Each structure stands twice: as structure tokens, then as C-alpha cells.
């Protein structure tokens, strides 16, 4: 079975073979004495070309590899030499500086917007006071806002004409054919650009890059993964982060698919449509006057461009934090794992810490009080004894008697004069798991409120009301 090649055509050329076809999943198998035709050579050369472009588009994405500085002098946009990769895996190279005349662009822009709004009008944006200054030495007539992008896109042209066999019906028997396709890049100014390809939305939400997306909802899969990472011990956090990231990436990559080819139901080879393939080099905010005068309203913004980082640089950046060894998260104190567990007589309870505490620091770090449902106020419950287990992670609290009232409030101090203190690192108690911890030196309190209805039954309250 023969599979059609993947080839795109250039809008400026009517020839279908201006850009060479891609055969990423077929290769030429040669044998002695085999008769080879044009398509066979296309397959042989289109296989590595297609694989390279697939790799670049899907695994690296579009962006600038090096250079391509953008400057403006006397309303001439100048782009220097450099290399970029577009959204469909093309390598875009500029050997010599390329220029675009903003004045010519402004004239075309005004014509297009006047035509869109009809005779006597201009469909450009409403003038804004901050861009109009009658005392300015520049454009003194009515000005309009315009935002344009400097983009680089792939272009191909034929070169090196050589004699070729002519059609038998051609009486002249003279025929030349281009033996080269030059891969070039064209500089352009556009008002709109295609949507940026942003795969892996769950991973982006995990790292806080898309706070408003559907995957960043509270109690969602990403939020629960972030909580598990935050609650992990410092020496386990990198492993937990890796596990959670792999799981979310698996869900993302399963849903990932390329767009369909224009005019076809078949999926495209590449992650971006041709309209979104050009590489953005800079953004220009302009003010354009009705007479064609044009000025920069702000400095050239190159932050719109995306840079492709080498693997070596990525490795160095990943190791920069040394797995969080110097971060506040790694230096925080013990935290409350779960709510306290009470004995049946309500005279004693215990709770578990995420890491060992310093012996003796627990003695003044726990406070218990209860609130009356009958309006009698608060009662401070006296503790008989507070102690740590041998592992330093379980705290036991014994009261003088059961709480006085039904609403019981337990406060574990991480702040104040006598907080519970961690053993390693030697910092105060950091509050409950699942909530942001305090700074390592400040600590954070944990408050647990529980209702014991047996301490103030409803029938007793009714009897008091009757009396």
C-alpha cells in the first residue's frame, strides 16, 4: 500500500513541488538492478527530512535558536542574522540583514482599514489621548493605535536550472528544470498571530502557569497532586514531584493530538497549523497618522519571542536549586498529620507529627479550651501531663478531667514564646498539612475544633430553659 507524502505548498508559487515532500514513515529499499524514478528519490530524501521536522516540531517547539535582533532606524525595521525553528519544524535562517519599511506598511494598513469602513471613514482603532500630542514634533495629525508583530516564516524558491528530458510532444526538445530548492525565511509584519501551542495543560497547572484553567480547580486532580507534593517530607519531595508529574503528563499526552490538515479529515503531521507556524520576533506598538506618518509608541518588545534552550542549559537550570535543599519548604518544622484521637472518657488525646519534635518543647505548646452552648462562655481546660513518644512524632495530652463544654478547641503552638519545636531541622512547628506553612523561623499554629454532644446533651439544655 502506498501512502501519500506530506507536502505543503507555498502560496506565492503555483507549483506543488516547490517544497519537497516528506516521507517520515517510509524509506527506500534498494536492490541491484532496480529501476528508480523521481518518487523513489523523494522517498529516500524525504524520510530523514520528515523525521527531523517531526522531532523539532513536537519535541522542541518553535522559537529562536540564536540571533535575529530587531532594531528600528528611521522607520525601517531591521532584523539581523540568526536561526529559528517554526511550529512545523522548518529551520529558518537569515544570513544577511533583512529590512521592512514601516512607512510602506502604514500606507497599506491605512488603505485596508479605510476600505473596510467605507468611503470617508477609517476603520482603525479609536484614537486614545495618551497617543495624541498636538505639541509633539512627530505625527501631528489624527493618530491611531496599531499593534503589529515582526514574524519570520518559511519560504522556498527554485534554483540552479539544468537540462532535463522534455515531453515527447515538445518539438523544441529544450527543457530546463530546477535542481535545487532553497530554504529561506521571509520577514513580515502582521496584526494577528496564530494561537500559541501550549501542550500539557495539567503539568502547566501544577507549576502554576495556568491558574485560571479548568485543571487548576480546587479539589481537582492537579490540586490534589500539589497537596501531596507539599505534604511530602523534604527528602522525599523530589520523588513525589516526579511521580505526580509523570502521572499528569501521561493524562496530557494521551489527549494530545495534531490538528487536521486543511481541507482534509486526516490528522496533520505537526502540532500547529500553517497559520500559527511563523516565529514571532518582536511586537511593535505604533501610532499611525491619517497622512501616513508613523511612530513607535513604545520600545520594541522582544519578550514576545520564544527561545529554544539547549539541553545542556536545561540540565543546569534543573540542578540550580539542588532539589530544594536551600528552600524554605525543606527547612520547615514538623506539621500536624491528622486530627487528634480522643479516648472514650475524653480525658486524653494524642496527635501525630510529620517529623520528630524536640523533647520538652511539647510541655507548654498545647492549649485546650471549651465553649458552652448555653452562654456560659469559655472554660480553660487544665492539663495534667503532656509528653512525647520515644520516636518524637506522637504527642500525648492528659487532662485533669473531661472538657467542661461541648465545643472543644485544641491549639498546637508554632508561634509565641513556647512553641512546639522540630528536632531536625531545628525550627518551630509549621501548622497542619495541606495549608501553607509559616516561614521557618516564625512557625504556624494548628487549631482543631471538635464537638462532643455528650458533654451538653439537648435535654439538659431544654431543662435549663424551662427552669
Describe it for me?
This protein has 467 residues and is α+β, with helices and mostly antiparallel strands. The protein folds into three domains: 63-196 and 258-309, no CATH class; 201-255, no CATH class; 341-466, Immunoglobulin-like (Sandwich). It is built from seven helices and 18 strands. The protein has helices spanning 38-60, 102-117, 201-206, 221-231, 237-255, 311-318, 458-466, and strands at 63-67, 70-73, 76-79, 82-85, 91-94, 98-101, 143-163, 176-190, 279-289, 294-296, 341-342, 348-352, 366-371, 378-381, 383-388, 394-399, 407-412, 446-451. The strands form five sheets. The chain has a four-stranded antiparallel β-sheet with strand order 8-7-9-10. A four-stranded antiparallel β-sheet has the order 11-12-16-15, with no helix packed on it. Strands 14-13-17-18 form a four-stranded antiparallel β-sheet, with no helix packed on it. β9 and β10 form a beta hairpin. The protein is elongated. The protein starts with 37 loop residues before the first helix and ends with a helix. Residues 253-272 are annotated as: Disordered.
Amino acid at each position: 500500500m502506498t501512502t501519500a507524502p506530506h507536502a505543503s505548498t507555498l502560496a506565492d508559487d503555483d507549483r506543488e513541488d516547490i517544497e519537497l515532500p516528506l516521507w517520515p514513515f517510509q524509506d527506500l529499499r534498494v536492490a541491484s538492478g532496480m529501476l528508480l524514478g523521481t518518487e523513489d528519490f523523494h522517498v529516500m530524501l524525504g524520510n530523514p527530512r520528515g523525521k527531523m521536522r517531526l522531532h523539532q516540531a513536537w519535541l522542541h517547539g518553535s522559537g529562536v535558536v540564536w540571533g535575529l535582533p530587531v532594531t528600528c532606524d528611521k522607520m525601517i525595521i531591521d532584523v539581523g542574522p540568526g536561526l529559528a525553528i517554526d511550529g512545523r519544524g522548518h529551520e529558518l535562517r537569515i544570513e544577511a540583514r533583512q529590512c521592512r519599511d514601516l512607512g510602506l506598511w502604514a500606507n497599506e494598513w491605512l488603505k485596508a482599514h479605510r476600505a473596510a469602513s467605507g468611503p470617508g471613514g477609517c476603520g482603525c482603532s479609536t484614537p486614545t489621548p495618551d497617543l495624541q500630542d498636538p505639541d509633539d514634533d512627530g505625527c501631528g495629525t489624527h493618530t491611531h493605535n496599531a499593534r503589529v508583530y515582526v514574524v519570520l516564516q518559511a519560504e522556498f524558491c527554485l534554483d540552479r536550472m539544468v537540462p532535463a528530458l522534455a515531453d515527447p510532444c515538445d518539438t523544441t526538445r529544450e527543457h530546463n528544470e530546477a535542481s535545487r530548492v532553497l530554504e529561506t525565511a521571509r520577514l513580515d509584519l502582521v496584526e494577528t498571530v496564530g494561537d500559541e501551542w501550549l501542550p500539557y495543560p495539567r503539568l502547566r497547572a501544577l507549576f502554576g502557569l495556568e491558574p485560571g484553567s479548568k485543571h487548576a480547580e480546587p479539589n481537582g486532580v492537579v490540586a490534589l497532586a500539589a497537596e501531596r507534593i507539599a505534604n511530602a517530607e523534604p527528602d522525599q519531595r523530589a520523588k513525589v514531584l516526579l511521580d505526580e508529574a509523570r502521572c499528569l503528563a501521561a493524562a496530557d499526552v494521551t489527549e494530545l493530538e495534531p490538528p487536521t490538515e486543511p481541507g482534509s479529515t486526516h490528522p496533520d503531521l505537526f502540532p500547529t497549523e500553517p497559520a500559527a507556524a511563523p516565529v514571532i520576533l518582536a511586537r511593535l506598538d505604533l501610532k499611525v497618522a491619517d497622512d501616513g506618518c508613523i511612530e513607535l509608541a513604545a520600545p520594541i518588545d522582544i519578550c514576545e519571542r520564544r527561545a529554544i534552550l539547549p539541553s545542556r542549559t536545561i540540565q543546569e537550570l534543573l540542578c540550580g536549586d539542588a532539589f530544594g535543599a536551600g528552600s524554605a519548604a525543606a527547612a520547615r518544622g514538623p506539621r500536624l498529620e491528622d486530627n487528634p484521637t480522643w479516648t472514650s472518657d475524653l480525658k486524653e488525646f494524642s496527635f501525630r507529627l510529620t517529623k520528630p519534635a524536640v523533647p520538652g518543647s511539647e510541655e507548654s505548646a498545647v492549649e485546650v479550651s471549651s465553649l458552652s452552648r448555653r452562654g456560659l462562655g469559655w472554660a480553660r481546660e487544665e492539663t495534667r501531663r503532656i509528653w512525647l513518644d520515644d520516636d518524637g512524632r506522637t504527642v500525648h495530652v492528659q487532662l485533669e478531667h473531661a472538657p467542661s463544654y461541648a465545643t472543644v478547641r485544641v491549639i498546637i503552638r508554632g508561634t509565641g514564646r513556647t512553641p512546639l519545636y522540630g528536632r531536625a531541622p531545628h525550627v518551630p512547628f509549621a501548622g497542619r498539612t495541606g495549608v501553607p506553612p509559616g516561614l521557618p523561623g516564625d512557625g504556624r499554629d494548628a487549631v482543631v475544633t471538635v464537638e462532643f454532644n455528650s458533654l451538653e446533651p439537648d435535654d439538659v439544655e431544654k431543662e435549663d430553659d424551662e427552669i
